[in-house]
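tool_call: predict_structure(chain=1)
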Amino acid sequence: MTAKFGNQDAGYLVKAVSLVKERLVFLNDIELFGYLFQATEKYGETPLSKIVNIKASSFNPGAFETFLKEYTSTDTAALETTLKDFANSNEIKAGDLMKFLRVSLVGELSGPAIPDLIVLLGVEETGRRVTNCFSQL
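tool_result:
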């Protein structure tokens, strides 16, 4: 797995696989979820076209990174509430924020729950992916 997914520790692999286990039929199917191991460099035109509203909103990638760094819990239910609070306090539609985060983190419009992804990937990687995606809009 090192060649395709980098050098991941066993704990990370267990957590990553647990997020997509219902979608796995064969072990090789994990390759369909490469975003768990490697960030999307260039986002597709279709997913980007679905999240252009975030560019017109007051979303600021730097402010979002600061917000993430202040959130230190790994409680995904609380993180979901906190994300919605962030959207409301920044006058962003929660649905637009969540859709943007999904594309930023996964590169597609479907995938595991956003709070689960943020906790798995960590603050630094989440921030990099958000900034990269936002720059491509």
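agent: The longest helix spans residues 76-89. Proceeding to next step.
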